[in-house]
């Protein structure tokens, strides 16, 4: 796991590129690392705010201080998990800017457990389609559809700079959690392949440090997921197993706080393998398909 300097610069404005600044939200956790990083793209002539983060008063104040008198052209969200998009509405109210980016998401028709990670109040003024561009003074951002971690996930390419804002799709500190039913392992791997085919210079994820060798990291992530898939098939060939037992064998010594995330990703692999006819279910247990 990559380490960042402590104390973490919560609420401070950091200039990371000529046109890019970031502000860290105070929501660090085992799931978010040091917290959600909100990126400000542009200069005093007009800004885009990417992933405004949680609806936290201190974070909103920090963003408004960083924005200052500059007009906000758009507030963009990569996806609608609760650590990314809830601040969009109060920031829009404070600045008058439209909320643009990913589509809204309705996951389960009201199941509280399934819906818990999602910002169901997110209401964009405009949804960006794959490949659609948004321009401001001196910058153009292009939406890259990258479903998998979330079905509505977008990355944003800052044209002419080699910069890609990757949200939660690719992070340097950990692999993304893929949690069904909204998360989809097949989509996630296809989206990784899509990014690997690009030639971006650097990734700025919503959590953790910048990724300075993006294609190498993405290639490793694809390989890691294929290894996990092969591991599942090998274990099930030896014996049937329920999900918790599989995770215990696959992730020996894992910190208790991360077991839930590991279970979700293994579940996503199992669902993908089942769709492909490679595994099946026998009651609560998973088996190699006959």
From TrEMBL:
Database matches in InterPro entries: LACTB2_WH, Metallo-B-lactamas, RibonucZ/Hydroxyglut_hydro, Sec-metab_biosynth-thioest, WH-like_DNA-bd_sf
Domain Metallo-beta-lactamase: 35-207
Family annotation (Gene3D superfamilies): Ribonuclease Z/Hydroxyacylglutathione hydrolase-like, Winged helix-like DNA-binding domain superfamily/Winged helix DNA-binding domain
Source organism, top-level taxon: Bacteria
Protein name: Beta-lactamase
Organism, scientific name: Croceibacterium mercuriale
């Amino acid at each position: 796991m990559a380490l960042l300097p402590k104390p973490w610069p919560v609420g401070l404005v950091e200039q990371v590129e000529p046109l890019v600044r970031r502000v860290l939200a105070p929501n660090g956790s085992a799931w978010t690392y040091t917290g959600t990083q909100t990126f400000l793209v542009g200069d005093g002539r007009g800004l885009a705010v990417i992933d405004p983060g949680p609806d936290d008063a201190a974070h909103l104040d920090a963003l408004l201080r960083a924005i200052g008198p500059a007009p906000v052209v758009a507030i963009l969200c990569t996806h609608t998990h609760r650590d990314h998009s809830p601040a969009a509405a109060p920031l829009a109210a404070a600045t008058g800017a439209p909320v643009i980016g990913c589509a809204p998401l309705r996951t389960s028709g009201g199941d509280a457990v399934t819906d818990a990670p999602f910002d169901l109040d997110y209401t964009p003024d405009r949804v960006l389609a794959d490949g659609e561009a948004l321009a401001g003074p001196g910058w153009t951002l292009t939406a890259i559809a990258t479903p998998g971690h979330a079905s509505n996930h977008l990355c944003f390419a800052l044209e002419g700079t080699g910069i890609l804002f990757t949200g939660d799709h690719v992070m340097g500190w950990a692999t993304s959690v893929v949690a069904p039913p909204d998360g989809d392992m097949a989509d996630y791997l296809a989206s990784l392949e899509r990014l690997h085919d690009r030639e971006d210079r650097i990734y700025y994820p919503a959590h953790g440090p910048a990724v300075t060798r993006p294609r190498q990291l993405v290639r490793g992530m694809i390989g890691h997921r294929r290894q996990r898939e092969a591991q599942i098939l090998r274990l099930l060939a030896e014996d049937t197993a329920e999900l918790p037992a599989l995770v215990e064998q696959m992730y020996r010594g894992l910190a208790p706080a991360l077991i839930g995330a590991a279970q979700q990703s293994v579940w996503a692999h199992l669902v993908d393998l089942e769709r492909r006819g490679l595994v099946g279910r026998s009651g609560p247990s998973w088996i190699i398909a006959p």
